[in-house]
Amino acid sequence: MIFGRSERGRPPVEPVTLKILVAGGFGVGKTTLVGAVSEIRPLRTEELLTEAGRPVDDLSGVETKHTTTVAMDFGRITLREGLTLYLFGTPGQERFWFMWDELSEGALGAVVLADTRRLEDCFAAIDYFERRAIPFVVGVNCFEGSARYPVETVRKALDLDEDVPMTMCDARDRESVKEVLVGVVQHAMAHTADRRGAVAT
Q1: Pairing of strands 16-24, 83-89
Q2: pLDDT tens column, 136-168
Q3: Which of 49, 169, 176, 196 to pair with 142, CA 20 to 30 A apart?
């Protein structure tokens, strides 16, 4: 588009920006996911884990992790012309959960990352979005060396409603993450349409 006029007669595309949260337990891959798809250099607020934090940080299953997000991760991805997602990764540790309310303000939807080795770590995020009626999908991050389970087995273990989308993904792989994000947008749009329909009737 040049000087507000569309090229080759096409109508101008109104840009749309949407806010998506990426949540889940400590060490589940939120920072990795945001970094895998972001078009810009991701903003990260990571700090080194210290001895002082060991009594409150459960490192079971993530013993090699040396840093933690203390505020948020931020990235951006354009899914198609005129549609841009702003990604906000939430801190996973309980002592930083006070940030969630501020980060969730204005969010269209969320991704809850799950690790089958530590499924209980994503219960808090699932509960948070359910209680606030924020549409979310669950992405099971398939770590190397971890056991693989059928989607329905994981769904049952998480006690998820049937209408909550769930998919297997690799937080390191751009295309895999893009599929998850497209799923979030589609689910959130359908959720919004359903709510509008209920209000109209």
Answers
A1: parallel
A2: 999 999 988 778 899 999 999 999 999 999 999
A3: 49
- Do 168 and 116 form a contact (C-beta atoms < 8 A)? no
Best CA proximity match to 182, nearest among 102, 108, 115, 116: 108
Cβ pair 30, 23 in contact under 8 A: yes
- 69: tokens are 């997000």
Handedness of CA 46, 114, 143, 139 (dihedral sign): negative
d(Cα 107, Cα 135) in Å, to the nearest integer? 9
- Cβ neighbors of 175 (< 8 A, separation 6 or more) are none
In tens, the pLDDT along 60-101 reads 554 554 555 545 899 999 998 999 999 999 886 666 667 788
Residue 134 in contact with residue 104, Cβ under 8 Å? Answer: yes
C-alpha dist (Å) from residue 20 to 72, 74, 92:
12, 10, 16
Q: Model's pTM, two decimal places?
A: 0.79
Extract the tokens encoding 72: 């948020």
CA 44 from centre of chain: 15
Q: Which amino acid is at 148?
A: R
Residues 6+ positions from 82 with CB-CB distance below 8 Å:
13, 14, 15, 16
